[in-house]
Amino acid sequence: MAETETAEAPTARATVGDSEFDRDTAVTLREPGVHDADLSAGWTIVNAVNGGYLLAVVGRALAQALPHPDPFTISAHYLTASEPGPAVVRTETVRTGRGLSTGQASLVQCDADGNEVERLRVLASYGDLDALPDDVRTSAAPPSMPPPEHCFGADDAPADQRSMPGSSAIADRLWLKLDPATLGWALGQPSGKGEMRAWFGLADGRPADPLSLLLAVDALPPTAFEMGLTGWVPTVELTVHVRAKPAPGPLRVAISTRNLAGGFLEEDAEVWDSADRLVAQSRQLARARL
Amino acid sequence: MAETETAEAPTARATVGDSEFDRDTAVTLREPGVHDADLSAGWTIVNAVNGGYLLAVVGRALAQALPHPDPFTISAHYLTASEPGPAVVRTETVRTGRGLSTGQASLVQCDADGNEVERLRVLASYGDLDALPDDVRTSAAPPSMPPPEHCFGADDAPADQRSMPGSSAIADRLWLKLDPATLGWALGQPSGKGEMRAWFGLADGRPADPLSLLLAVDALPPTAFEMGLTGWVPTVELTVHVRAKPAPGPLRVAISTRNLAGGFLEEDAEVWDSADRLVAQSRQLARARL
């Protein structure tokens, strides 16, 4: 059973701008279009740097480069595996419009021989979420799931039954409480359904914002685990739509897969805030190691 | 009531490689990375060049530029409105891998002053659909809809009730039969649900292939019409996953919107082939003119 202090959402100690997430996604403008970053080992899962974290680093560089602040739609194609350590984000302004501007970015690292290797390439259109009208006609409903105190996090499993082998530093940085209905895989009894649901926050209590939503959509265990697959599920492409600024409080993230075929699957994520607003939608194409 | 010859799927007269669609999406390599195209006025809706047709033009150039033939995942950000006439597609190979290669492309046209204007920018990862294993675990089911002879096309409406004002040349090139359950908008009685479903083919009988799927996902009337909006719904970004080569025969396309908010909506499309296989999935972010 979860202890009380981990079952409840972290109280806000860290703030937007002063948190683990902000420090680890920081980019420094070296010259126009060139941003230095330092990929933290703190956001790795089984030694792979999390794809949502990488997208947040690039998303921050684009927010600095473009005249609009918020990623409305951002697409990343993942090329090679990133490693903790120095990285460079190159940005290009493709078009500047009144309501939206479009940018492109590449995240690159140097290999052992000093050769530059591109890790991901990104296209994005940015706008200003605060400038949008309030009109909401959402037919979607928030996911039905138990309250956090009836959900389970990494700390709740006995040490000898933790299902994620290797280092999973990211688990220490997230407050993630999985719906037990989507947790069969961790007990060796996957449901066969391509669904995963969790309460999501940052462990240091930093509130959610559009940038941290880019992390939230890719932070849950893969739906493939509930479909009976045990191997890793590397992302080929991930597109996120940020639809509104999240209200304070924990987020609910629901991920689903409708089609696992030919060694590939899609993962659709919805992120809901505490005010029952759909704040982000994403879809990724990933490889399934069958 | 539909006449028999339009209610039935066109019999194959045109072939892949010799059809309206192939002629109008043709690209000619001028030099490495530079492809000449000629955007046809035949694929316009209310004077706007269809976004799926534009993606197919760019997708064909990328297929020629990359070592793999099929678009597995292709994302386009639409920058400015394209016009019928000459265009250039610039392609860049981002990464070449064993199973997948990634490319980038821009479609540009010259304005009246001879200045180059970028219309859309595209990132895509290509592979070989024929090389994938046959394994299919799809929890999704094909859309439930009546047979084509109980659905309705542009020809079926009395001329004075046709809902799409202006020129709609694309209607002559598509065989599109809309599910009457999603046709309330055309009679002034939108259902309020963000759903649109249709049988889809090319009017000259050209069989479907991965390239024509890029057109199919963006060829139906917008879901916004069934949500009571009447204005146009310009695409900001469109991502398509092609999951399998379509079997011969008509396609079924189902589009849905879960969230219309702040002047934007997403449109998710699924394309099913005659063998009940989910052959493509797409999502776009579009602006709603409220």
Overview features:
homodimer; 290 residues; mainly beta; Porin; 13-stranded antiparallel β-sheet; two-stranded antiparallel sheet; 5 helices; 38% strand; HotDog_dom_sf (chains A, B); Acyl-CoA_hotdog (chains A, B); TesB_ACOT8-like_N (chains A, B); TesB-like acyl-CoA thioesterase 3 (chains A, B)
| Structural class by SSE content of chain A | mainly beta
Shape summary of chain A: globular
Rounded Rg of chain A = 18 Å
Query: How much beta of chain A, percentage-wise?
Result: 35-45%
Give the rounded overall mean pLDDT of chain A. Answer: 92
How many strands in all of chain A? 16
| Helix content estimate of chain A | 10-25%
Please give the CATH architecture of chain A: Beta Barrel
SSE run of chain A: HHEEEEHEEEEEEEHHEEEEE
Number of helices of chain A: 5
The CATH homology group name of chain A: Acyl-CoA thioesterase, double hotdog domain
Query: Under CATH, the topology of chain A is which?
Result: Porin
Question: Assembly type of the shown chains?
Answer: homodimer
CATH class of chain A: Mainly Beta
Low-confidence stretches of chain A: 1-5
Q: Write down the domain tally of chain A.
A: 1
